[in-house]
Design a protein that fits this description.
The structure is a single chain. With 328 residues, this protein is an alpha/beta fold. Helix content is 28%, strand content 23%. A 7-stranded mixed beta sheet has the order 8-9-7-10-13-12-11. A 6-stranded parallel beta sheet has the order 3-2-1-4-5-6. Helix 6 packs parallel to helix 8. The model has no long low-confidence stretch (mean pLDDT 97). The structure holds NADPH dihydro-nicotinamide-adenine-dinucleotide phosphate and N-acetyl-L-glutamyl 5-phosphate. InterPro entries: AGPR, AGPR_AS, AGPR_dimerisation_dom, AGPR_type-1, NAD(P)-bd_dom_sf, Semialdehyde_DH_NAD-bd. One of its GO terms (biological process) is L-arginine biosynthetic process. Keywords: Amino-acid biosynthesis, Arginine biosynthesis, Cytoplasm, NADP, Oxidoreductase. Catalyzes the NADPH-dependent reduction of N-acetyl-5-glutamyl phosphate to yield N-acetyl-L-glutamate 5-semialdehyde.
Length: 328
């Protein structure tokens, strides 16, 4: 199957190329970048030298030739590609935020008008796999909502309040340098940002509701001096107290058979480069602390997008996603 990656020069696009190299059914035949048109992909992604001869191109949306396309471009850019691709029979996973929320919520939170909105399945397979099967278009979740929702999901129907506290690596901000990501501003520090107003909060609320929860939901992210990974501590305040054994049994049952969820002590280094989400829980009665670790560029972006492609196309769900993590 020929695969196009739109936005292939970015961090998420680079990860799509890397991971798809080991996919038995998919081959990257189109890698787009406006700024790097005509340059070898390995100029931007030198770690892939020897693995690909691809050259960046810059086709119009209606001229992209492929069986499947990933959109790894910023929100507001993705919405220009979806319909032209679908109209030509190309299946699509969008990694941006453009189709994750109802239109009015999206427009309010992102402060833009959506020019091509329609409802799309939300591709967090461990929660909503059925909607992804046989879909022609899937919206890939945000990185924070992925780790947060997976941490709290088994307890969602029993929760009165869910407070997510996340630590994220700097690659979450993409490869465009800024004052926020400038080395001296990140190194040796832990910086909370958007304490009560991060744009991913709406997605977190949406996913708790999908799980049958009426819990109030709060979220504060922190930038930490690591390249990759999101560690989320979910404080789940329960309606009724629950003991440790009961909580552990609930998580084991909820995630039974889920290849990408491992119930073990979460460490960013133990999931790095992989599509795993590691989760552990501890109960103190009416509060359960659930901690998850993901790689923001893999389970939080490119890996989950490939997982969705696999489900959409009927491939093994872990095809192209079996390379072990790279601790330390
Ligand atoms: N980084 C992360 O951890 C995560 C990212 N995402 C989402 O994935 C998408 C990509 O993120 P990331 O890789 O970090 O971003 P980067 O900034 O690293 O890369 C963006 C890519 O999109 C291209 N691009 C930018 N603007 C446009 C445009 N208007 N039209 C077409 N192409 C464009 C860029 O190349 P060029 O300018 O040369 O065309 C580049 O290839 C974003 O929507 C992001 O929110 C989702 C989850 C996690
Ligand atoms: C460190 C950092 O800046 N992280 C980004 C993560 C957002 C992201 O990746 O965007 P998606 O909505 O596509 O998931 C942020 O907090 O905005």
């Amino acid at each position: 199957m020929d695969v196009a990656i739109v936005g292939a020069s970015g961090y998420a696009g680079g990860e799509l190329i890397r991971l798809l190299m080991t996919h038995p059914e998919a081959e990257v035949t189109v890698a787009t970048s406006r700024a790097l048109e005509g340059r070898p992909v390995t100029d931007q992604h030198p770690h892939l030298r020897g693995y690909t001869d691809c050259v960046f191109t810059n086709p119009a949306a209606g001229d992209i030739e492929a069986d499947f396309a990933f959109l790894a471009v910023p929100h507001t850019a993705a919405m220009n590609y979806v319909s032209p691709l679908l109209e030509r029979g190309i299946r699509v996973v969008d990694l941006s935020a453009d189709y994750r929320l109802p239109r009015d919520v999206y427009e309010r939170i992102y402060g833009v008008s959506h020019t091509d909105w329609f409802e799309a399945p939300y591709g967090l397979p461990e929660i909503s796999r059925e909607g992804v099967k046989n879909a022609r278009f899937v919206s890939n979740p945000g990185c924070f909502p992925t780790g947060a929702t997976l941490a709290a999901a088994p307890l969602a129907p029993h929760a009165a309040h869910v407070i997510y506290d996340s630590k994220t690596g700097v690659s979450g901000a993409g490869d465009n340098p800024s004052a926020t990501t400038h080395y001296p501003n990140v190194a040796d520090g832990i910086n909370p940002y958007k304490w009560t107003s991060h744009r991913h909060l709406a997605e977190m609320k949406q996913e708790l509701a999908r799980l049958g929860s009426t819990a109030a939901c709060y979220f504060t992210p922190h930038l930490v001096p690591v390249n990759r990974g999101i560690l989320t501590t979910a404080h789940i305040l329960l309606d009724e107290p629950m003991g440790q054994e009961e909580v552990e049994a609930l998580y084991r049952e909820f995630y039974r058979g889920e290849y990408f969820v491992r119930l073990q002590r979460p460490m960013l280094s133990a999931v790095r480069g992989s599509n795993f989400c590691d989760i552990a829980v501890e109960s103190e009665g009416s509060r359960v602390v659930a901690v998850s670790a993901i790689d923001n560029l893999v389970k939080g972006a490119a890996g989950q997008a490939i997982q969705n492609m696999n489900i959409m196309c009927g491939y093994a769900e872990n095809a192209g996603l079996t390379v072990p993590p790279c601790l330390p």
